[in-house]
Amino acid sequence: MGLVNLYSDTQTRPTSAMRTAMAEAEVGDEQRFEDPQVTALCARVAELLGMEAAVFLPSGTMCNEIAFRLHIRPGGDEAILHRTSHPIIAEAGGPAAFAGAMMYPLDTPLGMFTADDVRGALRRPGDRYSPRSRLVSVEQTTNMAGGRVWPLAQLRDVVAAAREAGLRLHMDGARLMNAVVASGVPASEMTAGFDTAWLDFTKGLGAPLGACLAGSAELIDEAWRYKQMLGGALRQAGIVAAGALYALDHHVDRLAEDHANAAVLARGLAELPGVTIDPDAVETNIVIFEHDDPEGLCARLREQDVVMGAIGPRRVRAVTHLDVDAEAIQRALHALERVCA
Ligand SMILES: *Cc1c(COP(=O)(O)O)cnc(C)c1O
């Protein structure tokens, strides 16, 4: 009986079948376009996301950083995005340092916003006192709002509002495939109208590292400059890309199991004293609940071999993934019962 590690879906370890695929992969020099795995992966992701091209990068953070650099021009350009989004809370200020972006953080419910919210954030064109509105960035699913799936109609309205104002659009798809599996909407429909979008292989997909940023051939050509600049141009990256290809073949449909496990966890949590959660709000693999003492709760759970993350003065996050099965969820619930009693 090992640890039940619900800290994040980044905690997955490559399975032995994935390791075999990686070990046997034919590889080459990635930055000379000679790695067959990376070439295949980029073509596959471009098609999946309905884009012309894609580039393989070491991390999702680098996808966001390069995308912001592609869209934001020097001279006071502004990005409109949710205040809890990853580029604001977890990229070391990169969009400011690397792209020179002004950020317009939206404080709207559930990590999502509407076309009207975008319109309300627009600066007046030609106003020399204001930053210049340039980019809208969305997170599918919303991480810090509990893995919510942007409804397709809402995405389309946001795209239309941004386009009407001449803005670029970027989708942080760290958990895009969770949204696809939960909603049944194909990835390419969710990314329609976006200039750039990316997929992470290290979250629920269970690969050890890597992400792919997709967009027009022109934007991805330009992205290669920044990949080079940041030291993200690689060599025999096919060892890693083979893991990502394996994940696309074998670890997408099974995300439904993670969602079912998260729903069971949420329903169990709702029964516990001192815990506040709406189980119906859990749509994918992220479970966020309220408690008076998140740090204390997590410390006591840790003593019972269950790991969750305190993400604020009142909030705890648990994330399901392929290394946590239904039986492990029951063990987590038993530990929670003891700790909350
Ligand atoms: C994890 C995550 C990222 C960053 O991905 P890494 O591969 O860890 O760099 C970006 N956005 C969201 C929403 C994430 O959850």
UniProtKB/TrEMBL annotation:
A GO CC term attached to the entry: cytosol
Alphabetical GO biological process terms: glycine biosynthetic process; L-threonine catabolic process
Keyword hit for Lyase: yes
Highest rank taxon of the organism: Bacteria
Keyword presence, Cell division: no
UniProt-listed InterPro entries: ArAA_b-elim_lyase/Thr_aldolase (IPR001597), Low_specificity_L-TA-like (IPR023603), PyrdxlP-dep_Trfase (IPR015424), PyrdxlP-dep_Trfase_major (IPR015421), PyrdxlP-dep_Trfase_small (IPR015422)
GO molecular function: L-allo-threonine aldolase activity
Keyword annotations of the record: Lyase, Pyridoxal phosphate
Stretches assigned to the Aromatic amino acid beta-eliminating lyase/threonine aldolase domain: 6-289
Cofactors demanded by this protein: pyridoxal 5'-phosphate
Pfam short name (any one): Beta_elim_lyase
Coiled coil (residue ranges): none
Gene3D superfamilies, per the entry: Aspartate Aminotransferase, domain 1, Type I PLP-dependent aspartate aminotransferase-like (Major domain)
Modified residues (N6-(pyridoxal phosphate)lysine): 203
Similarity comment text for this entry: Belongs to the threonine aldolase family.
Protein known as: Threonine aldolase family protein
The species this protein was found in: Solirubrobacter phytolaccae
